[in-house]
Amino acid sequence: MGKLLSVVVSVYNEEPGLREFYQETKKVLEELPAPWEHELLFVNDGSRDGSLSILRELAAADSHVRLINFSRNFGHEAAMIAGIDYAAGDGIVCMDADLQHPPECIPRILEKFDQGFQVITMVRTKNRTAGLVKNVTSAAFYRLINCLSDVKFEANASDFFAVSRQAADVLRRNYREKVRFLRGYVQSIGFQRATLEYEARPRIAGESKYSIRSLFKFSINTILCFSDLPLKLGIYSGIAVALFGIAMAVYTIYTWAEYGTPSGYATIVVLLSFMFAMLFIIVGIIGEYIAILFAELKDRPVYIVEDMENFPSGTEHEKKMDGDDARNS
Question: What CA–CA distance (Å, rounded) separates 56 from 67?
Fold first, then answer.
């Protein structure tokens, strides 16, 4: 009995390199060992260039190509979870369309599936195009999140990963947060997990869709999703300020006894500035948690599908399409 591999690809303004990605990936997929067959599922995340036209051409020419077209841009995370939602494969591989995630790694992933692993994490060993700043900040981010969270993440794990049908069902049913960190969820759901290393290839065209601002926001949301330790900062800072206040009181009494009435203007200004700074930091942290709660409370859809192409009727895909409303809740 054959097995189906679903390759999920998030697409946002990838027109210059999209055909090259398809050709390289298709070459690998056509040589998959038996009993594996394949489907190539593209999720157009509201592209503003000619990416959608190219994807429609590919879907018309290749029956293995599926297309999900969003009504607008919902973000990379939403595109990946949509691909997982609609994938019908026994194994699902998520990757980007810029060829930084090498398609030639797919046979190695299938070997892990055949060995019984249900979650395969792809760890990047090198990324020569990222630059020193991005590589350093990425390493620092993983060290920080591992210190704050009970879940320990693989350093340099990327959005290039693979899950079995059983693991994907868990993501479909239970991990439906509006603010999410999908690669973190993949590492935290359990199951038998394997890690494979790869070297990121140069981007075939275009540039990273993540600005410094968006990466910073993404990092903050990730920390808040996986740790409540920042909420306890108020307790720790309160204890620290109390100890600081006691030390200042002892110092004031000492200077009064030794030198007479002390001049306390500078001390008061420094102490007040320090306390108000800590207070505003804590209020800001609480505000970020409330923003996440507000997003969950509004319960707006993770994504909205405008149209789809090449999804066969009377199959597992059709059942998934019928359950679209339930999935997006």
Answer: 7
| pLDDT for 329 | 46
**CB within 8 A of 32, min separation 6: which ones?**
5, 38, 106, 107, 110
Whether 58 and 25 have beta carbons less than 8 Å apart is answered as no
Token representation of residue 277: 């700074």
- SS in 3 state form for 85-149? HHCCCCEEEEEECCCCCCHHHHHHHHHHHHCCCCEEEEEEEECCCCCHHHHHHHHHHHHHHHHHC
Instruction: State how far Cα 261 lies from the chain centre.
Output: 59
pLDDT class for 142, splitting at 50, 70, 90? low
* Tens digit of each residue's pLDDT (9 = 90 or more) over 151-207: 666 766 778 888 888 888 888 888 777 777 777 777 777 788 888 888 877 776 656
- Characterize the bridge pairing of strands 157-164 and 119-126: antiparallel
Report the phi/psi class of residue 190: left, alpha or beta, with left for phi > 0 and alpha for psi in -120 to 50: left
Residue 248 and residue 271 in contact, taking contact as beta carbons nearer than 8 Å: yes
Between CA 44 and CA 304 the distance in angstroms is 11
> Please, which contacts does 235-241 make with residues 24 or more away whose CB atoms are closer than 8 Å?
237/278, 237/281, 237/282, 241/274, 241/275, 241/278
Chain mean pLDDT for the chain: 77
The residue among 230, 229, 206, 209 whose CA lies nearest residue 218 is 209
Query: d(Cα 44, Cα 163) in Å, to the nearest integer?
Result: 21
pTM to 2 decimal places:
0.70
The answer to whether 211 touches 186, Cβ cutoff 8 Å, is: no
Q: How far apart are CA 13 and CA 49, in angstroms?
A: 6
Cα pseudo-dihedral 234, 239, 243, 244, rounded to 10: -10
CB 27 within 8 A of CB 61: no
- pLDDT reported for residue 216: 65
Position 288 pLDDT exceeds 50: yes
Cis peptide before 16 (omega within 30 of 0): no
